[in-house]
Design brief:
The protein is α/β, with parallel strands linked by helices. The protein contains six helices and eight strands.
Length: 180
Amino acid sequence: MPTLTVIIAATRPGRAGLPIAEWFAERARAHGGFDVAVADLAEIGLPLLDEPNHPRLRQYTREHTFRWSAIVEASEAFAIVTPEYNHGYPATIKNALDYLHQEWNGKPVGFVSYGGVAGGTRAVQQLKQVVLPLRMRPVFETVTIPFHFQRVSGGTFQADETLESAAKAMLDELFEAREH
């Protein structure tokens, strides 16, 4: 089965991204089309761009870059779970994307976003501009979670039918897109 890697972009202590990603990863496992891996940027701990060579060259010198490259290389599709901070995406996901180049090429990506009234949509629009030059293929379907803080209790995310349907639609599209 193809591997879908769920990337948790938020790294702040007490972040909502962890329970939201856990919920989405469970939906992805239940979907049945993917082996599901989770890449938590808080655990991976990539420093701010410390490689001396351009990522296109793949001349890595740091162990953390080799590990990150192997995770991305082994994945056929991605779902980025991202908050919206000040109308944009967190620096952690930009850094993680910029660390590599060829490993992302041609792979579909979907977005699970959360925030206030906009539900992270502005962050997703900006991230689409970042993934396109990496030759990633953003899918149309997204999971948008406005007022996410009302849905996280005791470290667990509570989805409704609308979010469940959005997750299924995005997973179906990611499954289709990875074949092309």
